[in-house]
Structure formats: C-alpha cells, structure tokens
Amino acid sequence: MQFADRLNNVETSAIRELFKLLGKPGIISFAGGFPDSAMFDVAGISAASQAALQQEPGAALQYGATEGYQPLREQIAAFMAAKGARDLAPDQLVVTTGSQQALDLLGKTMINPGDKVIVEGPTFLATIQCFRLYGAEVISAPIDAEGARVDALEKLIAEHQPKLVYLIPTFGNPSGAMLSLERRKKVLELAVKYQTLVVEDDPYGDLYFGEAPPPSLLALSSEVPGSRDWLAHCGSLSKVLSPGLRIGWLVAPAALLGRAVLREQLGDAVEFLQPQGGLFLWVRLTGKGGALADAGELAKRAIAQGVAFVPGAPFFAQNPDATSFRLSFATADEDKIREGIARLAQALKA
Amino acid sequence: MQFADRLNNVETSAIRELFKLLGKPGIISFAGGFPDSAMFDVAGISAASQAALQQEPGAALQYGATEGYQPLREQIAAFMAAKGARDLAPDQLVVTTGSQQALDLLGKTMINPGDKVIVEGPTFLATIQCFRLYGAEVISAPIDAEGARVDALEKLIAEHQPKLVYLIPTFGNPSGAMLSLERRKKVLELAVKYQTLVVEDDPYGDLYFGEAPPPSLLALSSEVPGSRDWLAHCGSLSKVLSPGLRIGWLVAPAALLGRAVLREQLGDAVEFLQPQGGLFLWVRLTGKGGALADAGELAKRAIAQGVAFVPGAPFFAQNPDATSFRLSFATADEDKIREGIARLAQALKA
Q1: Cβ(A257)–Cβ(A68) under 8 Å?
Q2: CA distance A149 to chain B (A)
Q3: Which of B101, B38, B55, B48 is closest to B75 using CA atoms?
Q4: A61 φ, ψ to 5°?
C-alpha cells in the first residue's frame, strides 16, 4: 500500500516508543503534559453535563454549527475579555476540539508544500509535525529566558518571508520561557511590518504561580494598529478545566476564519427510488408537462414557501445532475413531512 | 493573506448559503441528514455520562490514547461482531470523532496531489470535498438502484488505477441505493485483483425499515481471501445514537491504521530555567564532572529506574539539542515528584 508522501515529513517514533513504556507499573511520569486528574472539578463538570442534557437535550446531542455552539462562543469571548481582549466578538472565534485542531486548520488553510514557517527552537513537537505534514519547511528562531529573541526573529522573517510565525509566548512548551511585554509588542509590530501571520498558542497562560504574565498578543493587539489583521490565537480549556472536554478555540482574521470553517455541509414532475432505509430520498425533476427541471431554482422557490432541501449537483464529483435533489426525512415528524411536501408542491407550481 | 492552494479545490458556497437560510422561522427542513432530536435516548445518555464521571473521572476527563479508550474499542468490536464482522479485534480499529474524521485521516494518509479516487456518482458531498482538499482527482462511477455498477467500476479501476475507491454500500447518501450482495462480493474481489483500497462508509446500515440489508463489506471480507488487506470501514454512532456524542471508528489494515494515528505525542549535572507557570521544566544536561550529557540515553536509564520524561531533541525543528529534556510537573503530586527526582538522580549516576 502506497501512503501519501506528506507522511515522510513526520518523525515521531522515538516519542511513541517512550509513551508505550509509560504503562509500566510504578513509573513516575514527568513525560506528558497531563494535568493532575485529582485537580479536575468532577462534581462541577458532572452537574454541568446533567444540566445541559436536561435543559437542552436537542442542542447537546444533535449536529451543531461548524463554528461551534453560539452560547459557548459567547462565554469564550467573555473569558478572553476578562483577560484583556476586550473587543473580541463571539463571531471572531470558532470552537475547536483543542489547540491541536486549531493548528491543523491553520496548517490546512495556510501552508502550501515548500512554504516556510518560523517556530521557537525548541517548541511544541506536535506543532512541528502538524506544519511539516502540510509540507512546510520549519525554521527555528532562537530563544532565551524572555522567549523568542525578536532581533533574530526579524532577521529570519526578512530572510525567509514565512507563511506564518508560531509562538507560545507564555510558559513555552518545552522551554517554560515567557516572552517579555516589550518583545510582545515588537512581535506585533513585526507582523504588521512584514505582513506575516503570527500564531499565538496560549494553553498555559492561566497557570501562573505568582505574578500574572503580560497580556496575550491578542489582548495587546488593540495597542498596535493593524496587528489584529495578522494575528491568530489558539486557546484551550484542556489545561485549566479538563482535557477530556475537548474544547479549544481559534481567533483569527475573518477571511482566514471563513476558510478554516470547511463545512460539510411531486406528481410526475418528480421521480425517485423508494428507499429501504437510511435518512434520504433522492429525487429527480423530470420536467414533464413543462414542469421545472432545475433543482437549484426549485430550492430558491422552496425556501420562499418555507421548506428546505439540498440540490443534488454538489454530490457529483463529475457531470452534476442539475435536476436532482435530496430530501432528508429523518428530522421532521410525519405531520411536518406532509406539510413540507405540500409546500414543495406549491414551489413546483410557482 | 495568501491561503493554501488546496482550498481552491473546494467549492461549498451554494450549500453554505442554503444552510444559513434554515434558521428562518417556520422552515420545514428536508435539507440536512439530521436525526430527529425527539428520538434521542436522553435519559440513557445522561445516566451513562453520570456513571462515567462518577466511576472513572480520571479516564473521562484526562487525555486519552490516540487510538481511543480501550473499553470503547472493545464495545465497538463487539457491536461489529454482532453484525457479522466476527473476527474483528479491538486493536484493528481506532475511535474517531465521527466518519468525517475517519475520511480526513484516510485523505491525509493516502492521497498525494494528483492521485485518483473513485466515488459513486452521486455521493456524500463532504467526501468529495475532503479528498479534493488533499489534491485528489475525484472520478464518478455510475450507480443504479443496486448501487455501484461493478462492471463499469472495474473498467474505471483498470483505467485510472485509483488510490482508493469510496463507497456507501448501504442506503447511499444521497441516492438511498443499496449495493446487492452479489455486487458486494465482486467489489471485494476487485479490491484484491487490482490491489486497490476500498473504503466502505457505513453510517446508515442499522437504519432499515423492513428486511435487514446484506452484510457489510467488512463482514463479507472473511469470505473473500485477501480482501481485508484492501478494505477500510468507517462506522459512526451519529445516526443510531446521537451526533452530539461525536463517536465514530475506522477499521483498516494495520499498516494504514498505524499511519493514521499521527500521535502527538540534578546537581550541577543539569541546569534549567525556573518556570513562573505552565506545566514544564526544560532541563539541559551540562556534562559537568563527566556526567551523562545525552538526554536520549538518560531517558532509557530513567525508565529502568521507574521514571519517565521526554527527551528534548524532537522539540527542535532544526539543530536538535541532544542534552535537553522536558519534565512535566503537572501530573504527579509532590511526594511523587520527590520520589521521581530521586530516581532520576539514580539514573544519572547509573
């Protein structure tokens, strides 16, 4: 079996072998960045999940919006506002299954094979793997205790014109380094000056021992004109609440966010196969008796009549059949189905 | 901002615009393949989630294995066995967030730009988008009420030598078509004859009205020698239990499955930055006084002493520092940390 070439760019075997050994009895692990399970608010999470299932079972268990559950987006925006990103609107972020999915979306939407990406040396190894998987050449910028050395970073940006610069400014993984306030502002200025996307990964910012860290790049971006247009911010509840919740988020310029949300989506005038199961009725407009034969046009008329379906053309990889459409009979109950079909008949006549 | 070229292959705007209109009050929707929320077993799911949080809060809320929670893998294997795939072992499948993630993993691991992929015409539009995103040329095979016409399919396979053939054999989306038993066996024979991966997507197989559908390709593969080596099977609980659970699975040959699991992962002999927060201590072996300076070697000795950490080299995109390693102090409590550091000191001396 021939695998995709992009897998050749990824090397993980040493770490994988190590993690297999962690199952040995009695091993004390300083390996994974796992929060202590004893710290999880099990009672709180349990009560919250019960409340969600009781109060809004449909929303909790049904398919949801690609961008994420709107009340959660609002809560995350409020959480970020409390940490200084005061002008962040809920529609400027999408909910992800963690920072990792945000990174995958950034790689998928931004990186062409051969593009250059600058990261801290050292940085989160899964980030290196993720960007390499999409064909990036990953370049290391030197760090010290105050994080990325911005003088060296500027030289590297000027030399390599990278597609993006990825930083963990607060408590870097694995370095633990903290980018100083002065350097944070300088990074935002570099983003604007070189029109380079800066990706701030910030899963650890709330885990400080003494003094609070400087504001995030996202919070500071309001002080550096134009910098918000060149900044993406990845956040996560994995380290502050629980990894098992699988909740993270991506804040990014509108154009990028739109690209990252790759969403999936009567009489003799119609003919269809009687399905034996499943969710769908696949219908074709026959055009008989001068009836409408364009399913896209019918879809528009149908919306006006208060009934919706999916035109068939996008289901074809080649030679789309413009007369076809798909009716899902799984969501509406029988009365609704009868009413919907009556409206569809109206739309056909209209 | 310059986006990745792969986005040029994806066209979804018509459907996206349609789905935006679904929010209009009073619309009866035959559009999305959403199960009726009234059918969800809210009480059962609620009780199960409470039980998981009470009995195993650590497992429920902590990071888990990339392959999925082992008891869940066992349950899924048993579920598949009850439907005829009797020889399926839990380690032959990985848990995903739905069929969609399984398709993304298949695209990522299998498809090079320019590779050919054969699908039914019409087929699930998100599949077309997913494979195109990884650069596939997607070719349509004709169908009738018994699903893909295997004679035409064989000609297309012989002509195009595709990287994979993607089918929804049972209650196709959007066609509702059902691949006959005879054709199912023929498809498996074609997989072996042409050494072509066949991907069976089966989210709807349990949703039949009358007679049960023929066994899945996965179940039938035991009757066609060699075919299991060329078969991947995507399953999902979204249509039979609830989409909100986000549980699916991918059964595939071991080599493919291994590729799809792209996992993320004292004294003056060491020096480190005192972190101000976060989860990690980033350490360097100084080699002073003839002490060990190779963190990879130290990791091996440390495991023998019962303590684990991550060597630093893989965190560098360039010029790896072999003397560095990362200690996570987040998982172990204080007593464990003291004991672990004592073991580490032993390993350094060993």
Answers
A1: no
A2: 16
A3: B48
A4: -110, -10
Residues of A in contact with B278 (CB under 8 A): 170-173, 176, 204, 207
What is the Cα gyration radius of chain A? 25
Task: Count the helix, strand and coil residues of chain B and give each as a percent rounded to the nearest 5.
Answer: 45, 20, 40
Classify A98 as helix, strand or coil: coil
C-alpha B208/C-alpha B176 separation (Å) is 11
Give me the count of residues in chain B: 350
DSSP of B241-256: T-GGG--EEEE--HHH
DSSP 8-state symbol, B1:
-
The string of pLDDT tens digits covering residues A56-86 is 998 889 888 888 999 999 999 999 999 999 8
Please indicate, yes or no, whether the overall pTM of this predicted structure exceeds 0.90: no
- Provide, as residue numbers in chain A, all residues whose Cβ is less than 8 Å from the Cβ of B280: 33, 171, 173-176
Task: Using a CB–CB cutoff of 8 Å, tell me whether A204 touches chain B.
Answer: yes
**Which candidate, B216, B188, B220, B219, places its Cα nearest to that of B202?**
B216
**Chain B residues inside the 8 Å CB shell of A239:** 279, 330
Q: What pairing do the DSSP bridges indicate for beta strands A231-236 and A307-308?
A: unpaired
Instruction: Tell me how many degrees the CA angle B252-B257-B260 measures, rounded to the nearest 5.
Output: 125
> Is there a contact between A243 and A205 (Cβ–Cβ < 8 Å)?
no
Q: How confident is the model at residue B263 (pLDDT cuts 50, 70, 90)?
A: very low
Question: Cβ contacts (< 8 Å) between A161 and chain B: which residues?
Answer: none
CA B34/CA B19 separation, integer angstroms:
13
Nearest Cα residue in chain B from A135: B4
Concatenated DSSP letters for B136-185?
Answer: PEEEEEEEETTEE-HHHHHHHHHHH--SEEEE--SS-TTT-----HHHHH
A234 three-state secondary structure: strand
B350/A contact by beta carbon, under 8 A: no
* Angstrom distance (rounded) from CA B97 to CA B237: 10
pLDDT interval class at B265 (50, 70, 90): very low
For β-strands A310-311 and A324-328, DSSP reports them as antiparallel
Contact B271, B286 (CB under 8 A): yes
Greatest alpha-carbon span in chain A: 79
Report yes or no: B166 and B116 within 8 Å, Cβ to Cβ: no
CA A169 – CA A216 distance, rounded (Å): 8
> How is residue A306 annotated by DSSP?
T
Owner of token pair 């690609």: A66
CB < 8 Å from B in window 132-171 of A: 133-134, 138-140, 145, 163, 170-171
Q: Cis (ω within 30 of 0) for the bond into B215?
A: no
* B331·A36 Cβ contact <8 A: yes
Q: How far apart are CA B274 and CA B73, in angstroms?
A: 41
Q: How far apart are CA A231 and CA B327, in angstroms?
A: 30
Average pLDDT, chain A: 87
pLDDT in tens, A98-154: 988 999 999 999 999 999 999 998 888 889 989 999 999 999 999 988 999 999 999
* Mutation site for A-interface testing, chosen from B19, B45, B53, B61 by largest number of A Cβ within 10 Å: B61
B-chain CB neighbours of A318 within 8 Å are: 121, 138-140
- pLDDT, tens digit, for every residue of A213-243? 999 999 999 999 999 999 999 999 988 888 8
pLDDT of residue A155: 98
The SS3 of residue B15 is helix
pLDDT value for B19: 63
- Residue B37 pLDDT > 60, yes or no? yes
Give phi and psi for A198, each to the nearest 5. Answer: -105, 125
DSSP label at B308?
E
Question: Is B35 within 8 Å of A330 when comparing Cβ atoms?
Answer: yes
